[in-house]
Amino acid sequence: MAQLQHNMWVTAARMAVLSIITGGGKWVEMTIPADPLYQHLLLTAEKKFWRCVQSGGPPHLFGVEPPRPKVEAVRVIDMSESNSWSEFAAIYRDTRHAFLEHERAKTELKVLVPEDAKEASGHGVRAKRSKSGAISFELMHVD
Hints:
By secondary structure, the protein is an alpha+beta fold. 42% of the residues lie in helices and 20% in strands. The chain contains three helices and five strands. A three-stranded antiparallel β-sheet has the order 3-4-5, covered by helices on one side. Strands 1-2 form a two-stranded antiparallel sheet. The mean pLDDT is 91.
């Protein structure tokens, strides 16, 4: 959005077109109108940033804290004394096999859905294919 608005401001354009090819290979075209308020704030931020580049000073924009550097993970911690860790570790251990079976079942069900099927259902499960081609599942109410 920032790049589109900046380019529209520079060229005095009233709109821009964004052309996207999604992960599923679908082409999407979006027409974006110029936003004068956004452009003004963006230009102000760009000018403040450039002054920092020139002066070597750190940028402080609109009172926002700069991102903190990532802390290197170096410690090894024993969580044996944590009751919460104990509770969630037990749930993780108890449900791990079911999760793996669930993922395997989804993979196998996806293979069974014909390529030209928009939807497939049976035995309390419905598979739906999105426009991008992704298949999702939902449980159906079975009487």
